[in-house]
Each structure stands twice: as C-alpha cells, then as structure tokens.
Amino acid sequence: MSEIRGGEEEAENEACLFAMSIATWAVPFHVVKAIIDLNVFEIIRRSGGAAQLSAAEIAAQLDTANPDAATVLDRMLRLLAAFSVVTSSLRSLPDGGSERVYGLAPVCKYLTKNEDGVSFAPTSFISHDRVLTQVWCGAYWRGHVCKCSSG
C-alpha cells in the first residue's frame, strides 16, 4: 500500500514541479496565461473530473462575439497539448467525422483554483510581469550603465 501511495506522491510532486517550470517558458507561458484569463481550465474542470470538451464547446461558454473563437482556442489548446498541459484526443461524431477534445492534465490541478479558491497560477505570472521583464532587459541595463558612467 505504501508503494502505491509513494507512486501517487511522486506523480503529485512531478505535476507540481511541472507547474513551476511553466513560469520559465516564453510563448507557451503566454498561451497558458490567456487560457487561464479566459477561464478555460475552470470551464473544463466544472464539466467534471475527466471531462473532454471541444474548442467549440468551450468557446460557447465564453463571452465573445468572435466567430473564430473556437478556431483560435483550438490552436491554443493544441499548443498546450504538445507541452502536456492539457490532454487531447479525437472524439467520433455521428456523421462519421471526428473532433479534437481537450481535458485537464495533472499539472492543471495547480493552475486551477482549489477548494479554498487558491491557485499556483498568479505566482507563476510574477516572473513574466512587464515591469520585471523590462528591468532585466539588456537595453535597460546598458542604458543604466552608460548613464551612470558618463558623470
């Protein structure tokens, strides 16, 4: 029994570390932030633990007038699926076609609000804050050094 619990704990730790590593990404980070800002993870979570929703089903729950919202959302979710932030699979349609559906990967536990309404997501946003990135921008430091040394 402790071996099973140890495996679950290890998987939990890996998911937590993965959530922290997302903060160091560039493009995928901004897509994750947009998805969180749109409450996409929360929409999927509210649909049930193992819910798999299409981009169109998610877009239907967003407050948007953009007719291409589902297409844009699908592209964003495909990127996140490539980074294992969400799960992705194909669902058969009655007409014989298929559609891609998305679910929450284990890392999403840390990117959605827990029972206390708390999430790791805001903490990860700090490292990409505009003020912090400007401070660490080479041009800022180059200008600061030149200004200080000219006097």
UniProtKB/TrEMBL annotation:
Gene Ontology BP, a term: methylation
GO molecular function: methyltransferase activity; protein dimerization activity
Gene3D superfamilies in the cross-refs: Winged helix-like DNA-binding domain superfamily/Winged helix DNA-binding domain
InterPro entries with a match to the protein in the record: COMT-like, COMT_dimerisation, WH-like_DNA-bd_sf, WH_DNA-bd_sf
Keywords: Methyltransferase, S-adenosyl-L-methionine, Transferase
Positions of the O-methyltransferase dimerisation domain: 30-113
Pfam families: Dimerisation
Domain of life (superkingdom): Eukaryota
PANTHER family in UniProt: O-METHYLTRANSFERASE
Protein name, as recorded: O-methyltransferase dimerisation domain-containing protein
Source organism of this protein record: Opuntia streptacantha (Prickly pear cactus)
